[in-house]
Request: fold
Amino acid sequence: MKHWILATVLACTTSVWAAPDWTQARIIKIEPDKARVTLKHQRIKSICMEAMAMPFKVEEAVNLETFREGQKVRFTVTEKNSHLVVDQMESTK
Ligand SMILES: [Cu+2]
Reply:
């Protein structure tokens, strides 16, 4: 989880943790028991993270049971206790 800190420092000097933007992604793996989802995401503008595949923690408001692997979604992330957490996710199809 260190890569995003570096990306933020290098590319983001002003809009760190700005208002969340929706980012497009595809679900690679869902682990509801761990409240974790692995997403292949597009560039996340709000935190200046380039496109990549990575696991995210998910807030309780997001019900992972309603998603499936391979699904196209959009999501937003926020920072919580210096971790990135998906706080909104919805199907785009
Ligand atoms: Cu990432």
